[in-house]
Amino acid sequence: MSHRRILSTLAGLAAAALAVPAYAATPADAPSATQSSTSSSIAAYTGSPQDKAATKAFYDAVIKSARAKQAQQAKAGKKPSAAVTVTYAVDAPSFQSEINSSTSIWNSSVGNVTLVEGSNYDFYYTEGNDPRGSYASTDGHGRGYIFLDYAQSQQYDPTRITAHETGHVLGLPDHYSGPCSELMSGGGPGPSCTNPYPDATERARVDQLWANGFTAR
Ligand SMILES: [Zn+2]
Q1: Which terminus of the chain is more solvent-facing, meaning fewer CB atoms within 10 Å of its CB: N or C?
Q2: Which residue in the list 98, 165, 182, 202 is annotated as catalytic?
Q3: 157 labelled as ligand-binding?
Q4: CATH for 116
Q5: Digitized pLDDT (tens) for each residue of the chain, 217 residues in all
Q6: How far is Cα of residue 93 from the mean position of the Cα atoms in its chain?
Q7: 80 CA → ligand 1 middle, Å
Q8: Residue 168 marked in a binding site
Q9: 14: CA distance to ligand 1 center in Å?
Q10: Which residues pair with 127 in a beta bridge?
Q11: Under DSSP, is residue 138 helix (H, G, I), strand (E, B) or coil?
Q12: Is this model's pTM higher than 0.70 or not?
């Protein structure tokens, strides 16, 4: 199917891309109670400054792409909508229902940005096996993608993983030390945490990041 081939090519091009931290470290990487909080394994588990830069790069790329399309529509005389529309493609057939759930969760949680599946996309979902688990990735100057890992999605709730990674696209960084009620705590609270909803602070942050989305300043 040609659509899938195009996406695979894009994934190949983005291979050298910055990766936002994986959804969760493997259990072996989890800090033990006796480990010092300054050890490097814990720094990796909770995210590094480089990971935060990657999250910001992905958000910057997506908002730039969405705004460019809005500007084109405005030129064509179309009335702008209040929310910025971010369009995605799905090259992850096993996760279609989780992606649909993630989209409705986000669209009912925030008002300044709307996720829509379609062509001329700003980012896409793909799937496979990766020892790093699931992650969001960008080349820093264009489109990004969300990788959903098979093995991790059997250990952790796949809808929470998908909504969490989508949170990166919307500009939220990881916060592994947070409680299960936070979406961006990711795998931090452990596999028993299945909450796929952003909390009030996360929702407010996304609305803040996408406020004035139409007026590119
Ligand atoms: Zn994450």
Answers
A1: C
A2: 165
A3: yes
A4: 3.40.390.10
A5: 444 444 444 444 444 345 565 676 544 444 443 333 332 222 222 345 556 677 777 778 888 888 888 788 778 777 666 788 999 999 999 999 999 999 999 999 999 999 999 998 999 999 999 888 898 886 554 468 999 999 999 999 999 999 999 998 898 989 999 999 999 999 999 999 999 999 999 999 999 988 866 433 3
A6: 17
A7: 31
A8: yes
A9: 18
A10: 148
A11: strand
A12: yes
What does the DSSP 8-state code read for residue 124? E
Contact 66, 213 (CB under 8 A): yes
User: Which residues touch 146 (CB under 8 Å, ≥6 apart)?
Assistant: 123, 124, 125, 126, 134, 135, 136, 137, 162, 165, 166, 168, 169
Q: Give a yes or no: residue 61 inside a domain.
A: no
Annotated ligand binding at 159? The verdict is yes
Instruction: Calculate ∠ Cα 24-118-85, nearest 5°.
Output: 80
Q: Which residues pair with 115 in a beta bridge?
A: 86
Domain limits at 194?
79-210
166 assigned binding-site residue: no
Catalytic status, residue 117? no
100: exposed, middle or buried (C-beta count within 10 Å: 0-12, 13-18, 19+)?
middle
Ligand 1 center from residue 55 Cα (angstroms): 9
Enumerate residues with CB within 5 Å of ligand 1 (an ion). Answer: 174, 186
Task: Check: CB of residue 121 under 8 Å from CB of residue 88.
Answer: yes
Q: Is 14 contained in some domain?
A: no
